[in-house]
Amino acid sequence: xxxxxxGALTFAELGGLFPRVGGVYVxxxxxxxxxxxxxxxxxxxxxxxxxxxxxxxxxxxIRNSSFKRIGLNGVFVFY
Length: 79
Description:
Elements: H1 2-17, H2 24-31, H3 34-64, E1 67-70, E2 75-78
Antiparallel strand pairs: 1-2
Helix pairs in contact: 2-3
């Protein structure tokens, strides 16, 4: 639990130090360079977010596959 508070305080301090829009991208750009920040943004956009959405979609399809449609009015019943 201590680590969660430490991370939140760290990001709060960085946000106060660099008051610009962009979050972690801005922090990485200031700490390293633009290329590292670009790689982070690229990874978030195309790898991490899309992977999380794919896992969520897969989980929803697995969960909803146990429902069967009954009748013409679209009533679902759990089997």
